[in-house]
Automatic annotation (TrEMBL):
InterPro entries: Glutathione-S-Trfase_C-like, Glutathione-S-Trfase_C_sf, Glutathione_S-Trfase, Glutathione_S-Trfase_N, Thioredoxin-like_sf. CDD domains: GST_C_2, GST_N_2. Residues 1-81 form the GST N-terminal domain. It comes from Pseudomonas auratipiscis. Keywords: Transferase. This is Glutathione S-transferase.
Length: 207
């Protein structure tokens, strides 16, 4: 059976859990990370030298990096409805997956660490204001895309891109900052909530 290493509160672990729900894929999850088994142990570092969750172990195959993992699961377990086989449609999904991992993640990092995690190293007022503005700017980009498609991030159909970005949207609404009106994002948030996998692993209020 597929093993998922990582605590369920991790946003990146939740990508994998939600993908498994969409694929009706059975798994066993093990708690690793802060507060649980150390990712700096020799056993874990042998699986992921970056000492980060999630890691999946599928038989003899080991993989880390959450977006790579969900792509693998879709490819391996009949997930073409989540990750299209045709090059243009797949590229559109990949485009938004990569945007989430780079631009969007980079935008919310400082603000999240400051406002949610209360990190002492992330309490500079000017840096926090800049981070909140940058996060809002990226969410506005997402809002325009969602208003254009009227449905999901990469087009009419739900895809892996929505798993990655949907979790970031949950984080946006769960972080105590000023949220400008983004009707496309708000409607998307409610649309995703219709999916059982999102209710279980996405819109659960966990930071």
């Amino acid at each position: 059976m597929l093993r998922i290493l990582g605590k369920a509160s991790s946003i990146n672990v939740r990508k994998v859990l939600w993908t498994c729900a969409e694929l009706n894929l059975a798994f066993e999850r093990e708690d690793w990370g802060s507060g649980y088994q150390s990712t700096h142990s020799e056993a874990f570092l042998a699986l992921n030298p970056n000492a980060m969750v999630p890691v999946v172990v599928d038989g003899d195959f080991v993989l880390w990096e959450s977006n790579s993992i969900i792509r693998y699961l879709a490819n391996q377990y009949g997930g073409e409805h989540l990750y299209p086989a045709t090059a243009p449609l797949r590229a559109r999904v990949d485009q938004w997956l990569d945007w989430q991992a780079t631009d969007l993640n980079g935008a919310w990092s400082y603000a999240f660490l400051s406002l949610v995690r209360q990190s002492p190293k992330h309490q500079d007022p000017e840096a926090l204001a800049a981070a909140c503005d940058n996060w809002a700017r990226n969410m506005t980009i997402l809002d325009r895309q969602l208003q254009r498609t009227g449905a999901y991030v990469s087009g009419d159909a739900f895809s892996l891109a929505d798993i990655a970005i949907g979790l970031s949207v949950n984080r946006w609404f769960q972080t105590p900052l000023e949220h400008p009106p983004l009707p496309g994002v708000q409607a998307y948030y409610e649309r995703l909530t219709e999916r059982q996998g999102y209710r279980l692993h996405g819109r659960n209020g966990a930071p």
